[in-house]
TrEMBL record:
Record-linked SUPFAM superfamilies: CheY-like (SSF52172)
Record's protein name: DNA-binding response regulator
Domain HTH LytTR-type as annotated: residue spans: 139-243
SMART domains per record: LytTR
Source species of the chain: Spiribacter salilacus
Gene3D superfamilies: LytTr DNA-binding domain (2.40.50.1020)
GO molecular function: DNA binding; phosphorelay response regulator activity
Length: 249
């Protein structure tokens, strides 16, 4: 049985691999610490079971579990929870298999033997919880090679165009299906509205300039984009730039 162990906690990863490595029927293929690593690995390698310890601070691993579970030939996923983990209620409501950490090695192996890929109903229930949870740290995008994850911290701006929203980020440009309204509601503290069709990351906004026709545009770090600023939003943008330039008291 080929498995991978995914957890942001080094202690959890090390403890689980120490328990499972001696088992003759289990091969631990990889130890992963980031949701994006889990997604990339499952796109490239066949695996039977993912042993997944999701940090309750964000829903990124849960979002990745939904993505992995929807792929053809998806592996089974067994979640790992500590005694007071608030995500236990999520697993129970979605009827998802989970085990407590720490747990006896034989019990872990038995759970892995019984693990099956998530059903459509389980995926739907988990997706509902992900959408209603805390703000994400990654965004799901569609690429020619399949789906991908973009760190929100790497995003410079969002620009709406018809059906999709273009994301300018440190590694390039991608399309996502989230609307600007949804993005602003979820990440309003990180991004600033410039126009009905544009949001900019506050820490990527470098200034504003006026063109020969008197229209005002935002200067965005790391890109040649000159994003239009509407009259409605211009006072707020100027106020934010002024506050950002002021020394802290």
């Amino acid at each position: 049985m080929d498995i991978i162990i995914a957890s942001e906690s080094l202690n959890v990863r090390q403890a689980l691999v120490r328990q499972l490595m001696p088992s003759a029927e289990i091969t631990v293929q990889a130890l992963l610490k980031d949701p994006a690593e889990l997604w990339d690995y499952c796109q490239q390698q066949a695996v039977d079971v993912v042993l997944l310890h999701a940090a309750s601070a964000t829903h990124d691993y849960l979002q990745t579990a939904v993505m992995v579970g929807q792929q053809p030939g998806a592996p089974a996923i067994v979640f790992v929870a500590e005694a007071q983990d608030p995500l236990i209620s999520v697993y129970r409501q979605a009827a998802l298999p989970f085990l407590y950490h720490p747990m006896a090695t034989l019990d872990i192996v038995n759970r892995l033997r019984l693990a099956r890929p998530m059903s459509a109903a389980q995926i739907e229930r988990l997706q509902t919880d992900v959408e209603g949870g805390d703000s994400r740290a990654h965004l799901l995008c569609r690429r020619r090679t399949g789906l991908g994850l973009i760190p929100v911290s790497a995003v410079r701006c969002f620009v709406a165009d018809h059906k999709y929203v273009t994301v300018e980020h440190e590694a390039g440009e991608d399309l996502i299906e989230d609307s600007l309204v949804q993005l602003e509601a979820e990440f309003g503290g990180r991004f600033l509205r410039l126009h009905r069709s544009a949001l900019v990351a506050r820490d990527s906004l470098r200034g504003i300039e006026k063109d020969l026709d008197g229209r005002v545009h935002a200067l965005v770090a790391g890109t040649q984009q000159r994003l239009p600023i509407s009259r409605r939003h211009l006072p707020r943008v100027r106020r934010w730039l002024k506050d950002a330039a002021s020394p802290p008291h």
